[in-house]
Amino acid sequence: MSRLIVRCAMAGIVLGSVVVVPQTMASGTGDVKAEARNQARAQGSSRTAAAAAAPAGVFYQEWLYPGPAGSTTCSAKAEYHDGRVKQGALKPEYYTINAKGDAVRMDASNPDYACNGYSVANANDVKAWSAKQYMTVSLADLASERKLTGSKTKRTAAVNTLATLAKNIGFTGVDVDFENYWDWSATDHTNFMTFIRELAAGLHAKGLGLQVEGPPDIDTAFHYGDVLAAGADEVVMMAYDLEYQSPVGDTCIAFAPYQWATYLIEGALAEIPQDQRHRFVAGLPSEAYTATEKCQNIVGNLTYADMRKAPGFSADPKVMESRRDPESGEIRWRVGDTFYNYVDQQALDSKLALVRGLGVDNVSVWVLGGGNHWFSAGAGVTTYQAEATANARSGKAAVLDCAPCSGSARVGHIGNGSTLTVNGVRAPKAGTRELTIAYTNGETTTQRARISVNGKTVRTVDFAPTGGYTKTGTVTVTLPLRKGANAVAFDNSSAAAPDIDAIRTRF
């Protein structure tokens, strides 16, 4: 789910001007979910329109945590009632492991868990709005984990408690969220794996399944393939929260930069046998954070509702695009000493496109509540706006208003020596890829553009008239891309080229 502290074990991964290297950090303490409840104060607006169904072959999952009345998480039920995971999975947190190592149910009758806590009614509602349901069990710290996993008696009791309730309420299984991987001793790791084997056996005996959440790190003792071999039916990599690795500075790191997420997911998949990789789930963020003290004081587990109240917030498409980080797709800005960051729908779509390009079709999103964004109907498609500030224009090429264009703008006056270069077009692997180019051509004849990739001319493409410069059309082209970021340029040395709205990829 979401952590207070995350370590990154990537040596020399460059994110813009920041090099992310291993750091030694103090472990996060306290109940992460309690922290989320304390931070989430704004009540998100309910959504009533039907959500987009998952693209063919994609299985959506979403975490659901409890909180007190009036907290942001209280809007979660209205959000999943839009049908977003009707064919997917919901994962409500119904249990925590206390300091004694006992599994304690988080009942809705407790004021701390009034919203989304366990009750027969809440469990039935979760089942009514999802195809699968995993009851999440979490814990606060390593001491609690040791009390549980280091005792045969405690392990047996927890297995019986979790398996019995999951079976009785008709859920699919249990989701284990223990996040102390970085602090494990060899004994801690051995005991954790023993607990996973015993829990898997207990659940399987009742016809139930087991999900186990793993770290955004491939250099801890947690090994995705070993956990599957121990009996887990699925493993989930929480591939986000790199912001906690931000160095001192004015620009903090995003939740999940593309390069970092690619590195981690590829590393996790390498730990899993090829014929078992369909059991891997990529965790994606739909949340927000703020940071002060030059990125060293980060408040996470915030929501879109919180961002809407933040100084400097803007829903204007042009402002949003000017704030969009090309390395993560996320929206970021600063007011005074405070840095703001959130994942909007376009960013979430782009992250889905990335993981699908890596061969992963199971995704789990943190988190419901507070109006956090969900995938669009075009999810799995990454859109690179022509007018984005990360792009380059030469000569007379300029940003023009365009109401029907995807970002309410296009780049025109390309050609006759003027050029548009769309930067940061990402590919998960090197090879020939299909890209869809959205454009306008208000002339009555076909316009041509020469397309170059990474400085090398690839081909010349014809763009038919669209019936006006405020009417869009699309052309699909095949281009050779290298792994990672690519620069795609449009020009015409002797005539006008079409105006470009956006490039879209689906990898």
What does this structure look like?
- There is one protein chain.
- With 507 residues, the protein is α/β, with parallel strands linked by helices.
- 22% of the residues lie in helices and 31% in strands.
Query: β content, as a range?
Result: 25-35%
Low-confidence stretches: 2-12, 17-48
Per DSSP E runs of 2 or more residues, the count of β-strands stands at 26
Strand order of the largest sheet: 3-4-6-7-8-9-10-15
How much is the average pLDDT? 90
Distance between the first and last residues' Cα: 26 Å
Helix/strand-derived category reads alpha/beta
Basic shape: elongated
Radius of gyration: 24 Å
Number of helices: 11
Considering DSSP H and I runs of 4 or more, what fraction of the residues is helical?
10-25%
Largest sheet: number of strands, sense, barrel closure: 8 strands, parallel, barrel
Brief write-up:
This protein is α/β, with parallel strands linked by helices.
Topology:
Blueprint: E1 13-15, E2 18-20, H1 32-39, E3 59-64, H2 76-80, E4 89-97, E5 103-105, H3 120-128, E6 132-139, H4 142-149, H5 152-168, E7 173-177, H6 186-205, E8 209-214, H7 224-229, E9 234-238, H8 258-270, E10 280-285, E11 288-292, E12 297-302, H9 304-308, H10 317-323, E13 331-335, E14 338-342, H11 345-357, E15 362-366, E16 382-385, E17 392-394, E18 398-401, E19 409-412, E20 419-427, E21 431-441, E22 447-453, E23 456-463, E24 468-481, E25 484-491, E26 499-505
Parallel strand pairs: 3-4, 3-15, 4-6, 6-7, 7-8, 8-9, 9-10, 10-15
Antiparallel strand pairs: 1-2, 4-5, 11-12, 11-14, 13-14, 16-26, 17-20, 18-19, 20-25, 21-24, 21-26, 22-23, 22-25
Helix pairs in contact: 5-6
